[in-house]
Amino acid sequence: MRLRWWGHGFMWLAGLVLLMPILVVSAAALNGGRSMLFPPEDPTLARFGEFFVSEPVWREALWNSVVIALSSAALAVLLAWPAAYFIWKSSDRLSRVIAGLMAMPFAVPPIVFGVGLGFMWAFTGGLGTIWAGILSHAALFAALPLVTISIGLQGIDRAHLDAAATMGATEGIAFRTIVLPQTIPYTISGFFFAMVLSFNEFIVIFFVSSSSYATVTLQIFNSLRNGFTPTMAVGAIAFILVSVAAFSLVARFGDLPRLMGADQTRR
Amino acid sequence: MSASAAEEAASAPGPAHTDASGAALRLGLLAVLLVLCLVPFLFVLAISFGHKIEGAGWEFGFEFTHYARFFFGAAWPESFSQLYWQRLGYSVYFAAIAAVLAVALAFPFTYFLTRLSRLGQTIWLVILLSSLSLSEVFIVMGWDILLSARSGLPALLDALGITDWTKEIGWFRWFRDVGLASPRNFKFKTSGFATVLTMAYLVWPYAVILLYPALSRLDPSLIEAARTMGARPLTVTRTVILPLVRLPLVGSSLLLFVFLLGTYVTVTVFADPSQHTLAVSIYDSVRGSTLNAPFGAAQSVILLVAAGGFLLAGRRLSAAAAS
């Protein structure tokens, strides 16, 4: 069944509304003055220099964001891999408990998890340290690589594993030669999902950082009292570009519709 | 012979060894996840019964003062206040409207999306995921400009003459009465309208992603059969598609509702202080102006219980409807 013109019209309209705030913010980054006007007045690219080079506040915030996003995504994948593998091998009660625990921070209002993590790190002395932020984000987003890696594992034909076993391959060899190569795209997708979401996360890192360091999202929120400025809008552009690049890579090297749960039989 | 015996001896512990290390790995993973994913919630629960020390922090204890403060107000038993009930009410009110709105608008979009080619779907999914992951602070920033009096929607309505037109036909008074206009011009900050709009925008891509699997598995032959039998597109939607995806629709609305209960930045920027939600109140207690961690914890527990209650009720309702 072909999509009719009003179907396309509705999609384009929705896409326009979806892009509108992003376009407006991007344009506001060009403002020459200190206020966020649209259309921009006295357009200049000076704000890009401020954000990436000359203002240490933003440079440090960007560095913290990058460190936390990359490390927490790597850690989330490290936590999710064995969990996904165990569930795939044998879905007994212990495996299900592990999966349930990983999904839990994702299923509650994030502010409650943030408050709880803040209490826990205050108790253990980790409050305000970068590594506590990394661990917190890893816990929050481990569910994403868990899902993508599980989808990858489900796509493996068990007949291949049986064949490998009859030909004398140990579990380790079968894992290296069959399981690992087929799941690498899904692992990388999971990493990107966790990384992009950690990069943009605000409320959990707010309670965990305890104002002793700032990520870009935190720095923007801290400056909110004085209103939004065009320099922050540069941050928004940078973040959007990172997201688009990450998800385009996922789409290029993996099967995005399948990851999102599309039907496999139809093209 | 001795060589094969040695081989046997070496290989025999092999599987047993991997099993043992597998079990150890599983238990280790379980321990790490218990600490990272469960213990924070236990801290919230324990501290909600804690004791607040005036002018200082708090200590562990077992008292119900903070729950009593939520249920009856700070000055109880002298006087009763429903302030925190009201906050919870606004949390539920904003989150419910925004979640239903987002799912209702995402449903036709997702349906059309699943009819596109594989490449078309992939491109849209990249756009959707990028928008979905965009931080709440950036989204609030965008809508802040779009709704601002100087360069946003009010200025546009003014320039197009719509403001004067609504004044002429007398509708402007209505906008003023519901708080969407100042005496002279339209004004969307601060208002419930701006809050719900931004919240719905925030979760709309999530709604599409959640509905996508169900709608893409919809059997096209069912729809074609109904069409060949002469049913109009709207009738097909009502009698064939909607009953098939009712469960995912209800499920994703509930999930997004729970997610939105914790919205913080949108509410602080766009909602009037009299309409602030429990999330703002939790923030104020834990890190903000009032500094009362046990009370913040108690409010978090109540928010969690409320969220759990709604999820359970929703499940019961949809299970009852399905049977």
Largest β sheet strand count, sense and barrel closure of chain A = none
Number of separate domains of chain B? 2
Spatially, the strands of the biggest sheet of chain B line up as 1-2
Mean pLDDT of chain B: 84
Key descriptive features of the protein:
heterodimer; A: 267 residues; mainly alpha; MetI-like fold; 2 domains; 13 helices; globular; B: 323 residues; two-stranded antiparallel sheet; 2 strands; 1% strand
Verbal overview:
The complex is a heterodimer of chains A (267) and B (323). Chain A is an all-alpha fold. Chain A has 13 helices and no strands. Helices cover 76% and strands 0% of the residues of chain A. By secondary structure, chain B is mainly alpha-helical. Chain B has two domains: 1-46; 83-148 and 189-322, MetI-like fold (Orthogonal Bundle), CATH 1.10.3720.10. Chain B has 16 helices and two strands. In chain B, strands 1-2 form a two-stranded antiparallel sheet. Chain B is globular, with a radius of gyration of 27 Å. The N and C termini of chain B lie far apart (67 Å). Chain B: Keywords: Cell membrane, Membrane, Transmembrane, Transmembrane helix, Transport. Chain B: The chain crosses the membrane at residues 27-49, 90-111, 123-143, 192-212, 247-271, 291-313. Chain B: Residues 88-314 form the ABC transmembrane type-1 domain. Chain B: It is a multi-pass membrane protein.
